[in-house]
Each structure stands twice: as C-alpha cells, then as structure tokens.
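Case study 2.
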Amino acid sequence: MKAAIFDMDGTLLDSMWIWEKLAYNYLESIDIVPPNDLREKLKPLSLLEGCYYMKDKFKFQMSAEQINHEMEKLLEIYYAEKFELKPYAKEVLDKLKTNNIKMCLATATADNLVSMALKRLGIENYFKFIQTSNNAGIGKQNPEFFKMVIKKLNFDARDIWVFEDALHCIKSAKECGLNVVAVKEDSAKKDLEEIKKNADIFINDFNDLKIENLI
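Prediction:
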C-alpha cells in the first residue's frame, strides 16, 4: 500500500442520514410529492447531477444550478457544525500518516461543504488533494473519475486502497484495478451482500481494520 483514497460521506463522516431525506424534504417544501424511487435514482449522482435530474423530471423553471444552490444552503449547517467522524476514523488516518501513506479524498459532495467539514474536524491536512465530482466534471459511478485520481496519486492502482461505502463507487473503483475496503453504512443496507462480493475487505467500522495487513 502506497496510497489511500477516502470517500467522505458514509465512510469518514456519519452524514448519510441527511442525504437520505434531503431531496424529499426539498420537494415537499415546494409542494411536490416525491416518488418512492427518488433516492435510488439520485444515489449514484452528485448533488448537481441530481438537480439536473430533478429539473428534468419535475419541469422546474429555475436552473439546476439554482436548485443546487438552494439545497446546498440546507446542507451548510450540517457540514459546518453538526456532522462528526465515524468511530475510529481519525485513528486510521493517524496510522496511515505515520506510515507515510499518501492520502486523498474523493467525494461527490460540493467543494465548499467538504472544506467546511474538514476544517472543523481538523483533518484537512491529512489529504494531498481533494477530488470532487464537481471539480472532476464526472460522477464517481464513472471509472474515469477514479482514473483521474490514480493519475494524480502517481502510483499503480495495485498499490492503492480505496475506502468506500457505496456499491456504485466500489464497482467503479474495482473496474480501475484498485483495492477496496468497504465500510458498513446503514443507508447501503440493501446492497450489503453485493458490497461484500465486490470489495476486497469489508469492515463494520474502522476498529475492524488491521492497517498492518494493508501496508
């Protein structure tokens, strides 16, 4: 192991609970009844991609960027003040840093929200760079996203471990030849068996992780 790619929401941060209901709450606030399958449609998309989807589906007059801005405003307080690290995540980051493992963050969350959370939690300096779907121009369900990250890390994919909670991201990473540690997340419960099949290692939380087996 020479490098590590960390997802943020659901992997490092206990934050997926707000994403599970964000779009529903937003639509209900403007008197639109959300369809039952909305979360499944939005799950592989970044927030902005999801806003384009909703604009098309619900025929909004406002732009996708305007919808995105309104939803980001709803999220800001959570990233700036509320979300916390998952158990033992900081200890894992410390161990990897001590062993000179190059780390980066790869997330579908908007850059400004990422920055708010990392600074408040004091972990921004652990990561050499932050790759978001917005600054990449593609979502994490596309293997090209991870190819971009691999190129920036400048290591062979076989020497890189990805820490992820979402099935579509795990599959995308594996397509690029990356090693994957899947972190249990309640919001991905229905995909659990598929996640276990696709990942190299599955952990209930970071306390289960034996770093010495990866380095």
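The chain has a mean pLDDT of 93.
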